[in-house]
Amino acid sequence: MSFSFDHLLVNTAWQALTTDHAELAVSSLFARRYPADVVPISALEGLRAEALAELRELMLPDEALYVAWSEVEGEQFPDCPGIEAVADLNALQMIYPDTEDALESTAQTTAPGIELLTSVNGAEMVALTDVAFPGFFRPRTYLMGNYWGIRSDGELIAMAGERLALPGLREISAVCTHPQHTGRGHAARLIRHVLAEHAAAGLRSFLHVTDTNHRAIALYERLGFLKVGATRFTRIRRTPLSGE
Fold it and tell me: What is the distance, to the nearest Å, from the Cα of residue 202 to the centroid of all Cα atoms in its chain?
């Protein structure tokens, strides 16, 4: 299936950091990243050593972060002095269809028991997401978009929200439920809520999911998401050069 947003879904993090999230970008000519206390994600204008060397200058000594890039046939992550490639994650891109039926299925915009989270909830959002994916959610990740949560006896037990922001597109992210409260439909309720918020604002919803997370992929497919591509996340670390 073809979408009018195809060009934005290639090198998505770079697209976000040069458009709707440009105000968050720490940048040079060919490299951009989010601040360390927002999210450990960066992007390059092109997958080449020159751009990676620029990114190195935006990193602290021994700092690690992820370079998000769209793999093109025959393309490989470049070697760069002072940069160690530590690991790779392959994340499927999935998008929510832009059809009247799909939009109508998210019409319940105000779901009971779902609250909008704000900066004052930063610490508990970090604590909850650290259970599922430690280190990805940071003290100021909330600056990337809106986040919503579900509580039990006052404790935040499930949440979902937005990460990458591009013209007409918002990424659904930070979907997690505390292990003691899984199997009760919290994630599906929260995703439908975010979909409804996006539909009301005239935005298309997309997400990334690790290609080995079969349980999450099955959930997203049940909710109506379609696979449209993939993003490679290469974890890199800045290492010393001789003389540093």
Answer: 20
Identify residue 22 by its one-letter amino acid code.
A
Q: Which residues of 195-215 are buried (b: 16+ CB within 10 A; e: fewer)?
A: bbbbbeeebbbbbbbeeeeee
234 within 8 A of 65, measured Cβ to Cβ: no
Torsion of CA 136, 137, 142, 146, to 10 degrees: 80
CA distance 65 to 179: 27
In CATH, what number does 6-91+231-238 get? 3.40.630.30
| pLDDT tens digits, one per residue of 143-156 | 999 999 999 999 99
Query: Using CA atoms, how far apart are residues 15 and 28, in angstroms rounded to an integer?
Result: 15
Measure the CA–CA gap between 17 and 25, rounded to whole angstroms: 6
What topology is assigned to 94-229 in CATH? Aminopeptidase (3.40.630)
The residue type at 25 = A
Query: Longest Cα pair distance anywhere in the chain, in angstroms?
Result: 62
Express as a percent the part of the chain with pLDDT over 90: 79
pTM: 0.90
Integer Cα distance of 208 and 12 in angstroms: 11
217, burial (CB in 10 Å: exposed 0-12, middle 13-18, buried 19+): middle
Eight-class DSSP state of 110: S
Q: Which residues pair with 205 in a beta bridge?
A: 170
